[in-house]
Amino acid sequence: MIKWSISTEVFSLIILFILTLNFRERRWEKFSQRRIFRNCLYLSMGAVVLNILCTYFIVLANRIPVWIHMLCNSGYFLLIVAVSSVIAYYLCRLLYEHIYQKDGSKRFRLLLIVLYLLYALLILYNFQSGIIFYFDEQQNYQRGPLINIGYGVMLLQLFVLLMITLRNRRSIDPSMRKVMRILPPIILVLTGYQIIYKNVLFNGCIVVAANIILLLNFQSRGIEQDILTPSGNRNSLHQELLLRVGGKQHFQIVAISLQQYRSINQRYGVKRGDALLYRISLWLEQLVPKGKSFRMGNVEFALLVPYEDKTSADRLVETILTRFREPWVLDNVSITPHPVFAEFIYTDSGREEDADNILEILSFSLSLARTRKEHILRFDPSIYQKMAQQGQIIRLLQSAIKEERFEAWYQPIYNCHTGKLSTAEALLRMRDPQGNLISPGLFIPIAETNGFIDELTDIVMEQACSLLSDTAEDILESVSVNLSAQQLLNEDFIRKMNVLTERYNFKPERLCLEVTERVLSENPQKMQAIMKQLMQKGFRFALDDFGTGHSNLSLVLENDFSCIKLDHSLVQEYPENERSRFIVNTMLNMFHSLDCQLIVEGVERQIQAQALIAQGVKWIQGFYYARPMPKDSLLLLLDPVSKEDGTFHTDATACET
Ligand code: C2E
Ligand code: MG
Ligand code: MG
């Protein structure tokens, strides 16, 4: 009679038990892979228990009827191959995790089923033939010629899995590639050992080894999971992009960045803020069956889906936009975040992309989307040119700062009541090394998002203050300077302004600080607090480009702006266009009845100026009266001695054309 040692099986059972206890699913568990793994652990325990039982029955031998022996052992043979099939299926799912085309995975599943059915038929046939095992007349367990058939099935499964790994290695997660490097040799060695040392029960150890390796793989995956939401984290997005690009799989990414999230946290509490992020992430995660969501920044998400065609890409973007137009309801509280969107599509365009590149394009596209009225930037290959241009401008900004190639130009503002140009707006100009002027429309947005804007504001501010100190108030009443969000978020700005007023000795009332709605929306509370302190010192504030953003009237009423500047886009077709006439005249009436000072920007034609003056407009800034010009040209223009009638003239030599 064969003498079995079951100690290894008992040991395996204990370890499997510990693994099961330690395997906890996360509350947002959606991955069926994890469910498969959990079932795999249960099946493994069942198989080991049955093996121990069979061995015990064999020891009891004559006291147990043969049919029970046969049933028990057949059950074990079936179960152990079932375990190996489930593990193989599970591994295959993980190997295909980053591959959209899953035909190979389906074929492998079919192979597993067919193999298992054939094997089950063989086990049935074994009842009659004893081809795998049988019990002799003394009821002793005897091995048949096909006793190792189960190992054969397992090795065949392993071989096919290795083929799948080799074929798709560029799209297989590194942690899985590692599993496929470690698991086969371990299983081969253990199987070989079992075949040689037949009396030591070793199958449990093989199963335990496989399960431990898979569990470790899970843990390394846990590192890629976002801690707050069901989405993957930035690392896993990077990894996903790497694998998708590696396997040349076409995909679409929609990135979503939530603006002014700080105010959501302040208004609804951080807990609700977190709950909203969780809800958005879950919605994204469940939106497209093959899609994956990632939290790529604190309040930034990305949804990655396979790219099929333009129509489905458009549909996805529309679905996301539509959802974000609605509020998100959490515990009966409606929260409306302010998202901006960017899309990227990867196809075989012949461009060499890598994951870093794509992440860079996404964040660049988001920054462009922020400046757009519609708050979305759909993918367009011209983005590459824009990025290259941005790189060029960044280099120019760096060199221009070093070589002091910035100057403040001034655009005079016309006082319709006195007929004089008596104030001016400082507008920054940058020159390239050849001396050509570069428009601030090009470099200011880039300076704002790349950390140069403080330095640039310092340059304009210093020059504007020096102009105020050099020019008498009756010649130049005031100068206005544009601010970006960064200045109004930094308390040090107040100190800087105090230093400048002392150094240049001018009345703060002569300096007007221009801010836009967009600037104020970033962190309204903090900015308003800093604005208030500056207003108390006498500095004046103007709301610039009114009519381009939300045209938020409460912003006007809440803040003590000295004046509102109507954006030039409003007057482009004024007064000929009826719609424009209606909008501008209504705004003018409204602001006049609120007793707000108004400056209308962008007036280029006489007919515009005449119509505005007829509507009672006091201040006009536009090319019709004067273009931006260097300081010397401005002084020449404003100096009453050089003018015969005290009114302006427009022939200053160095004006912009
Ligand atoms: P803004 O503050 O609204 O400045 C007015 C812009 O309108 C100027 O463009 C000016 O040249 C232009 N403009 C004035 N009249 C007319 C007109 O009749 N027709 C047309 N088509 N345009 C007119 P510029 O100098 O190119 O500046 C563009 C923007 O760049 C400014 O808009 C401002 O937002 C920003 N910017 C300029 N300098 C600075 C600065 O020193 N700091 C900051 N943060 N932004 C600046
Ligand atoms: Mg301005
Ligand atoms: Mg403006």
Strand order of the largest sheet: 10-11-13-14-15-16-17-18
> How many helices?
24
Percent strand: 15-25%
Radius of gyration: 37 Å
Counting helices, strands and paired strands, the structural category is: alpha/beta
The protein's oligomeric status is: single chain
Q: Could you state the CATH homologous superfamily of the domain at 2-222? A: Rhodopsin 7-helix transmembrane proteins
Poorly predicted residue ranges? 643-653
As a percent range, the share of helical residues equals: 55-70%
How would a crystallographer describe the biggest sheet?
Answer: 8 strands, mixed, barrel
Shape: elongated
Query: Tally of extended strands?
Result: 18
CATH topology of the domain at 2-222: Rhopdopsin 7-helix transmembrane proteins
CATH class designation of the domain at 2-222: Mainly Alpha
Provide the list of bound ligands, each named once: ligand C2E, magnesium ion
Q: What's the architecture of the domain at 2-222 in CATH terms? A: Up-down Bundle
- On the 0-100 scale, what is the average pLDDT? 90
User: Termini, distance in Å?
Assistant: 106 Å
